[in-house]
Design goal:
By secondary structure, the chain is of the alpha/beta class. The chain has helices spanning 17-29, 100-117, 190-205, and strands at 6-14, 37-43, 47-50, 68-70, 77-80, 84-90, 123-125, 128-133, 136-146, 149-157, 177-178, 208-211. α2 (100-117) crosses α3 (190-205).
């Protein structure tokens, strides 16, 4: 198995956002030509994150005193919390002959395919990265590409307290509603979402996913 066809998955569990951000930066900084790409699957304690060009004005209020962290990903403000699954992709785009647009398309399609597997119909919205069920956002996406290496990734709302979303303009869109898997299929667990997402990602990226 070569580095170009392998993706190592790791499960750090509930992880502080700063800790994950610093670990992603360190991983890509230490890369060698034969470093195997990784996929980190985790959850964060409650936190608002702002993208590089994110505007604080999209934080409308903060009655829950949720920490606000400036990130180095793309996009505006979003909320992370327990019950939302985060997939961080640490990929060498040149190795996979991927453009950023192709990677975004693959991620979005993987989520659409996964949700469809559980009988949840979802779709893209032109000019607004992420995946939507009806008119509500169920999955968000934000990446950072540096020296051809990707970090950050995407999140899927599965079974969480979505109250914190009501105090922001999610992803910079006023009055954007958010939703989650449990609202559309009560029988689907986080573990089922993870496993099916891995199947779809491995097919679309043409990699074999292995546990570390």
């Amino acid at each position: 198995m070569t580095a170009s066809s392998l993706l190592i998955r790791r499960f750090p569990g509930l992880t502080d956002y700063h800790e994950a951000l610093n670990a992603m930066k360190a991983f890509n900084h230490k890369r060698q030509s034969d470093t195997v790409d990784e996929l980190w699957i985790l959850e964060h304690p409650a936190v608002y994150t702002l993208g590089q060009a994110g505007l604080m004005s999209h934080l409308l209020s903060n009655p829950l005193n949720i920490p606000v962290v400036r990130s180095d990903r793309g996009g505006q403000i979003t909320f992370h919390g327990p019950g939302q699954i985060i997939f961080y992709l640490l990929l060498d785009l040149k190795r996979h002959h991927l453009t950023v647009r192709q990677l975004v398309t693959a991620i979005e399609q993987a989520v659409i395919n996964m949700l469809g597997f559980f009988n949840i119909s979802s779709h893209r919205v032109e000019g607004a990265p992420g995946i939507y069920v009806e008119n509500a956002k169920i999955a968000a996406l934000g990446l950072r590409i540096q020296n051809g290496y990707c970090r950050h990734g995407f999140s899927i709302n599965v079974d969480m307290d979505t109250t914190a979303f009501t105090f922001i303009n999610p992803c910079g869109y006023e009055r954007l509603r958010t939703t989650q898997v449990k609202e559309w299929n009560q029988d689907v667990t986080k573990e089922m979402i993870i496993e099916r997402t891995l199947v779809e990602l491995s097919n679309l990226l043409q990699v074999e996913v292995k546990i570390a």
